[in-house]
Amino acid sequence: MQRRNFIQQSSLTVIGMGVFGSLLSNNKKTGTGLSVNGKRIESRIFELAKFGVDEKGRNYRVAYTKGDIEGRAWFMELMKKAGLDPTIDAAGNIIGKRNGKNASLKPIGFGSHIDMVPDGGNYDGTLGSIAALEVIEILNENNFVTEHPLEVIIFGNEEGGTIGSKAMVGDMTAEGLKQKSQSGLTMAEGIKAIGGNPDTIKSCIRKKGDIHAWVELHIEQGGILEKEKIQVGVVEGIVGIVHWEVTIEGFANHAGTTPMNLRQDALLAASKFIIAVNEVANSVKGNQVGTVGKITVQPGAYNVIPGKVVLGLEIRDLSGDKIEMLFRNMQKRAATIAVATKTKISFERQANESKPALTDKKLQQFINASAKALGFTTKFMQSGAGHDSQHIASIAPAAMIFIPSVAGISHSPKEFSTATDMANGANVLFQTILKIDKE
Ligand SMILES: [Zn+2]
After folding, report:
1. pLDDT value at position 353?
2. Among 82, 340, 360, 361, which is 20 to 30 Å from 369 by CA?
3. Domain that holds residue 253
4. Count of other CB atoms within 10 angstroms of residue 119
5. Domain tally, the chain
6. Average pLDDT, the chain
7. Distance 368 CA to ligand 1 centre (A)
């Protein structure tokens, strides 16, 4: 479907210019007439999906496990065949290089990750990885050499805390390396298991200016593109995430003998606060989200008025200021609720917060223009999920391309994107890289 679109598009241009032959050869020189092999992309998605299936038949290509190691070996073999000469850096990231015409230029990087959450899907990360390889294959098949060197990067352990990309920008601490990963190994042990070296982890650091530009193609993992029937999402940024532990203290007392007007019911206060979080999150325009996703009640009995409740509050947005503003408003509401319910409400900000990361404006325009030139509809949008690109954005102009996720399902074996959408996204990635290269 996409290929047909593309042919129509280019023949329209040809008629307009009236120079059929010369345009075709010119296209070949500029790369604009080339397009990816959608069948190859989909068949590789299915091939990679065979790695990391556990004894119960569940998808389990969790970072640092056997499935991850085997999947990575398979991927590196394909990289080798494509002439990328892959190496593994100290953090376990796989890096394949293709020379450009001008060795003094900094590389254009693109790729994603191939690890998954337990019982995960076959498209999250893998699409961006396989599409990156596809870009290289098409360049090879057409003997096309870019000006800039190209680097395909497959980050290690994205799902367990964007470990590979964090290390690449110098944000991996000794403490972080000691943490347990989903595989059961510590991060340090896991990195070793996939061929990295935690002792020399700093050697993988890229400084500002080391990478000319970074582009990651990814499935949306939400339902906006599908619902609005948009083919390509241009990501404006990756939201910041802040967590607070909210403690509500009342007084546990006999549920039969304490009259309604003498109660200090912590769960009642919590209920009012949960509604307030929802109302505050809805009180201003924008894409911000606020959630209470966790609750514990003490003592937790039919016949005792709840004395203490602990909630988990999360706020996400592209603007750090907006997150703070929303939180202040939630705090104000909490103060009123505390008075009305004769309880005490306190907030403890958690250390695991991630800052919002904005993508590069010029790269956003390149993606949008590339998609439009291929005849696709586009939408500028934020990413509500974390990605390796959010770290890379701190050392290089970074951008992300989204394609629709069917029914908005992700981190599930039901995750699915159509072959057409995947080919569309890969073509946009390809044309964006060529645009960056020519700029
Ligand atoms: Zn991902």
Report:
1. 87
2. 82
3. 240-349
4. 14
5. 2
6. 93
7. 21
The pLDDT tens digits of the residues spanning 300-323 come to 999 999 999 999 999 999 999 999
Structure token pair of residue 432: 């964006």
Instruction: For residues 423 and 402, state if they share a domain.
Output: yes
Compute the distance from residue 417 Cα to the ligand 1 centre, in Å. 14
Model pLDDT for residues 198-213, shown as the tens digit of each residue: 999 999 999 999 999 9
Phi-psi map region of 255: left, alpha, beta (phi>0 left; psi -120 to 50 alpha): alpha
CA 174 – ligand 1 centroid, Å: 25
What is the CA(121)–ligand 1 centre distance, in A? Answer: 10
From ligand 1's centre to the CA of 213, what distance in Å?
19
pLDDT over 50 (residue 7): no
pLDDT band at 28 (very low <50, low <70, confident <90, very high): low
DSSP class of 59: B
Q: Residue 155 C-alpha to ligand 1 middle, in angstroms?
A: 10
CA of 408 to the centre of ligand 1 (A): 14
Q: How far is the CA of 393 from the centre of ligand 1 (A)?
A: 16
173 Cα–ligand 1 center, Å: 22
Same structural domain, 360 and 264: no
Of 157 and 27, the one with more pLDDT: 157
Q: Peptide bond preceding 299: is omega within 30 degrees of 0, i.e. cis?
A: yes
What is the Å distance from ligand 1's center to 60 Cα? 15
State the Cα–Cα distance between residues 154 and 70, nearest whole angstrom.
Answer: 14
Collapse the DSSP code of 112 into the 3-class scheme (helix H, G, I; strand E, B; otherwise coil) and give the result.
Answer: strand
Domain shared by 325 and 382, yes or no: no
- Domain of 280, CATH number, reads 3.30.70.360
Between the CA of 226 and the centroid of ligand 1 the distance, in Å, is 18
C-alpha of residue 267 to centroid of ligand 1, in Å = 37
How far away, in angstroms, is 2 Cα from ligand 1 center?
24
Q: What mean pLDDT is predicted for residues 267-276?
A: 98
Cβ within 8 Å of residue 411, ≥6 positions away: 117, 120, 121, 124, 221
Residue 286 and residue 173 share a domain: no
CA of 129 to the centre of ligand 1 (A): 10
User: pLDDT, tens digit, for every residue of 173-232?
Assistant: 999 999 999 999 999 999 999 999 999 999 999 999 999 999 999 999 999 999 999 999
Of 309, 331, 349, the one marking the end of a domain is 349
Radius of gyration in angstroms for the set of CA atoms belonging to the chain, rounded to a whole number: 25
369 and 343 in a common domain: no
If residue 314 lies in a helix (H) or strand (E), which one and from where to where? strand 308-317
Residue 354 binned pLDDT confidence (cut-offs 50, 70, 90): confident
